[in-house]
Amino acid sequence: MEKILISACLFGEKVRYDGGDTLIDDPIMAQWKKEDRFIVLCPEVAGGLPVPRKPCERDLETGQVISQDGEDFTDAFHQGASIALNLAKKHNIRHALLKERSPSCGVNLIYDGTFTSNKIKGLGITAKLLKENGINIYSEFDLDQLKTDLHEK
User: Fold this and answer.
1) Torsion sign, CA atoms 100, 106, 107, 109
2) Which InterPro entries does the entry link to (predicted)?
């Protein structure tokens, strides 16, 4: 049975910047969990960031990941992305279910770096690295597509 890399917050782990989670409550998730399909990781925590932590956004002009007060967390985000890629390779993972809008895991949208809640088209650091390495990336809003791609009923 094929493994799926999943953002830890979507799995229900309280690892978000605010100490919360964004558990996906869906029957297919319960089934995959029961089948032990998930490899669970929060790239930000894997990269050394604490819970809770300062909210961060990507500055698309510089490529940096910064907090609202200007602190640069880029290295931790890249380290977490590398750990995610290595984990995916270790488990021969071809599909990753990631948290939309996250500076690490955003699949279609990320915040624009102005801390005004404005979202723009873009990829998080981890999502980008996984995609560049041939891993199919999905957000929590793409469950049906992931199910189809895995040939699940």
Assistant:
1) positive
2) 2-thiour_desulf
